[in-house]
Design brief:
The chain has 261 residues and is of the alpha/beta class. It has 8 helices and 7 strands; from the N terminus they run E-H-E-H-E-H-E-H-E-H-E-H-H-H-E. It has helices at 32-43, 55-66, 83-93, 117-141, 164-185, 202-208, 213-220, 231-243, and strands spanning 23-27, 47-52, 73-77, 98-101, 147-153, 190-196, 251-254. The chain has a 7-stranded parallel β-sheet, with helices on both faces. Bound molecules: NADP nicotinamide-adenine-dinucleotide phosphate. Residues 27-34, 52-54, 57, 79-80, 102-105, 126, 151, 153, 196, 198-199, 201-204 line the site of NADP nicotinamide-adenine-dinucleotide phosphate.
């Protein structure tokens, strides 16, 4: 169990290779950015534990990562806001060094006059409690030098109409980042968030009605850098935040300049 410590956070290689031999739980690991993070981490020799709600999607993700040589790949179904189910997964995994939370979608989107209290509550619960639950589990289990990386989106700084509840939820995740980083620092654990722009994932394609690579290229051409980000470009920042033991409480933006335009 991680304890309060007066020793400084340990020094180790801040390069992704420094994560070799560690175990990373990815809540939201069966698709998109989380799956890409799983592949990158597996590639540098980390053991990954993929969590998502749909077992078939998890199986497909495990097969995809296992196709490359490397350490063990585990998977278990759970909702990211079910703390007890997540606790069982952490326990089964044995040691866990880092946690990445990418779980989330567009549930809760809709014009403000159509929002119900139930929708707002469940949207906030999924994102905010999901982040807090992950950090609570990490606080009790991760060794010093461990980290939690959360996820938000560019809508926090460039809002769009019809997404107030979702934006409130991801904004809260950003606000939590510093609060939880300060709280976990005494255990020498770190908390950061990656704020994403348009990343070419199943979620983004589904939301934009994009069904082919050609349509994705065409839609992405209007971006400042002329295309959407790949899931790997998005995931690499989460891996960087895990690896660098001296970054905490930060919200790092990966949006190809979308926030400027
Ligand atoms: N792609 C973008 O352009 C973009 C932009 C800004 C922010 N983001 C954020 O980045 C994160 C990842 O997005 P993505 O594009 O990689 O999406 P994605 O391809 O749909 O992947 C989302 C993953 O999270 C899992 N998941 C969703 N809700 C969950 C829940 N309640 N409990 C457990 N697992 C859950 C999904 O599996 P199951 O559905 O089987 O549970 C899946 O593995 C999301 O939080 C999204 O809001 C994405």
């Amino acid at each position: 169990m991680a304890t309060l410590s007066t020793a400084p956070v340990p020094v180790r290689s801040p390069l992704p290779a420094g994560l070799a031999g560690s175990t990373v739980v990815i809540i939201g690991g069966s698709s998109g950015i989380g799956l890409a993070a799983g592949s990158l981490l597996h590639g540098v020799g980390a053991r990954v534990v993929l969590v998502g709600r749909d077992q078939a999607r998890l199986n497909g993700a495990v097969d995809r990562i296992r196709a490359e040589d490397g350490p063990e790949v585990l998977a278990a179904p759970a909702d990211g806001s079910d703390e007890q189910a997540l606790a069982r997964i952490f326990d089964r995994a044995g040691s866990v060094d880092h946690v990445l939370v990418t779980a989330g979608g567009l549930a809760g989107a809709g014009p403000v006059d159509m929002l119900s209290p139930e929708t707002v509550h469940s949207t906030l619960h999924g994102r905010v409690w999901g982040a807090i639950a992950a950090v609570r589990l990490a606080a009790l289990r991760l060794p010093v030098g461990g980290s939690v990386t959360l996820t938000s989106g560019i809508y926090t700084i460039r809002p769009v109409a019809g997404a107030a509840a979702v934006i409130a939820a991801i904004g809260a995740v950003e606000a939590l980042t510093g609060a939880l980083a300060v709280e976990l620092a005494a255990r020498r654990l770190r908390v950061n968030t990656v704020r994403y722009g348009s990343i070419d994932t199943p979620l983004m394609r589904g939301a934009a009605g994009i069904t082919t690579d050609e349509a994705a290229a065409q839609a992405g051409a209007g971006m400042l850098l002329g295309r959407f980000a790949t899931p790997e470009e998005a995931a690499a920042t989460a891996v960087f935040l895990m690896a660098n033991n001296y970054i905490t409480g930060q919200v790092i933006t990966v949006d190809g300049g979308q926030g400027l335009a």
